[in-house]
Design brief:
The protein has 366 residues and is α/β, with parallel strands linked by helices. The chain is built from 13 helices and 12 strands. The strands form 2 sheets. The chain has a 7-stranded mixed beta sheet, with helices on both faces. Strands 8-9-12-11-10 form a 5-stranded mixed beta sheet. It has 2 domains: 4-243, Type I PLP-dependent aspartate aminotransferase-like (Major domain) (Aspartate Aminotransferase, domain 2); 246-363, Alpha-Beta Complex (Aspartate Aminotransferase, domain 1), CATH 3.90.1150. The N and C termini lie far apart (54 Å). Bound molecules: pyridoxal-5'-phosphate (PLP). Pyridoxal-5'-phosphate (PLP) binds at residues 74-76, 99, 101-102, 142, 146, 171, 173-174, 193, 195, 205, 207. The site of pyridoxal-5'-phosphate (PLP) has 15 residues, from helix 3 and helix 4.
Length: 366
């Protein structure tokens, strides 16, 4: 079997049969000619399917070592596609420390449509077991978590799910298949905001779900088509261009993040560092108080203050007022997300420049 980087470059990227173009074209079409009613070449309308979706799906499935993948309009589009596997009255057990937008989707949309959620500390797998009810249909894991970068035991939690015929999904956005393959650990689905590391250049929004289950793939495709959760062909093409360097980028994100962690560990203004030991995300609390922390993160040269993560350029974020503002303060306090926590998405720039940037900005607060 080909290696990760080979698959990233070649899967779903066969040269165009008609022209020999090495890079498959963008099928920027909404509809397809039919030979006679309902007789076509496998495509009828781009809300349902498009060759650029299939190319990107082939690549993501290969990297996740999955049989199938389904692409969506965004990470949240993919999450809605997964929730659409359920029906009113079903119950979901989810880790409590997760992306604020996912929490908002569960609480402000899911609950209105009759889904029930129990949030547990996913660090202890047994908590999933304890939260099971008669109507539990899905376990939701996010690991590493956003923004506290906690890890859960996918294998143990997926095993609990399987024994009770409960589906399990892992939001694999932070780890990417380069560092973690949830399906190999027993999960039914691996979900991505491809907006992040998979796209890798902060220029496109997208989502995907990988699975080995053909029934789930059919249902996910149905959700995409019936709810209008489809991406654009161009966005898929762009995401696939980014995906080709995923392995190279993840190595560099990680190398830089480790250097930054070892610099911050020795800095006297650092209170707490969250780093799972791999990947490019680092969360930090500074001994500065909230107002000074906000001033600090607005003053970097190379860490741009912005939502999102996983691009080649370094970003910094204040979860309490930005990515996790949609989570009530009480829910944030419960998971230990303090108002002074700062989340860094470490880019692929030269580590020396990034460290100088941090050192220089922090020196103004000494
Ligand atoms: C872990 C995680 N999952 C899902 C999402 C949602 O993805 P999107 O913004 O592409 O809808 C995000 C966005 O930040 C995220 O960080």
């Amino acid at each position: 079997m080909a290696g990760f980087n080979t698959k990233a470059v070649h899967e779903g990227q066969a040269p165009d049969k008609e022209t020999g173009a090495v890079i498959p074209p963008i099928y920027q079409t909404s509809t397809y000619q039919q030979e006679s009613p309902a007789v076509n070449k496998g495509f009828d309308y781009t809300r349902a399917d498009n060759p650029n979706y299939r190319n990107l799906e082939a690549a993501i499935a290969a990297l996740e070592e999955a049989d199938f993948a389904a692409v969506f309009s965004s990470g949240l589009g993919a999450s809605l596609g997964v929730l659409n596997l359920l029906q009113a009255g079903d119950h979901i057990v989810s880790g409590s420390d997760l992306y604020g937008g996912t929490y908002r989707l569960f609480k402000q949309w899911g609950e209105r449509f009759g889904l029930a959620f129990t949030f547990v500390d996913a660090v202890h797998s047994i908590n999933f077991s304890k939260a099971i009810q008669k109507n539990t249909k899905l376990f939701w894991m996010e690991t590493p978590t956003n923004p506290l970068l906690k890890i859960c035991d996918i294998q143990a939690i997926a095993k609990i799910a399987k024994a009770k015929k409960i589906w399990s999904v892992v939001d694999n956005t932070f780890a990417t298949p380069y560092f973690q393959k949830p399906l190999g650990l027993g999960a039914d689905m691996s979900l991505h905001s491809t907006t992040k590391y998979i796209g890798g250049h902060s220029d496109v929004i997208g989502g995907a779900v990988a699975t080995n289950n053909s029934e789930l793939k059919k249902k996910l495709n149905f959700a995409r088509m019936a709810l209008g959760l489809n991406p654009s062909p161009f966005d898929c093409w762009l995401t696939q261009r980014g995906l080709k360097t995923l392995g190279l980028r993840m190595e560099r994100h990680q190398e830089n993040a480790k250097k930054i962690v070892s610099f911050l560990k020795r800095h006297r203004l650092v209170q707490r560092i969250c780093y799972p030991g791999f990947g490019g995300m680092v969360s930090v609390e500074f001994k500065l108080g909230i107002e000074k922390t906000k001033r600090l993160i607005s003053s970097f040269q190379f860490f741009t203050l912005a939502e999102s993560l996983g691009g080649v350029e370094s970003l910094v974020n204040h979860p309490a007022t930005m990515t996790h503002a949609s989570m009530p303060a009480s829910a944030r306090a419960k998971i230990g997300l303090s108002d002074s926590l700062v989340r860094f998405s470490v880019g692929i720039e030269d580590a020396g420049d990034l460290i100088f940037d941090l050192e220089d900005a922090l020196a103004r607060f000494e």
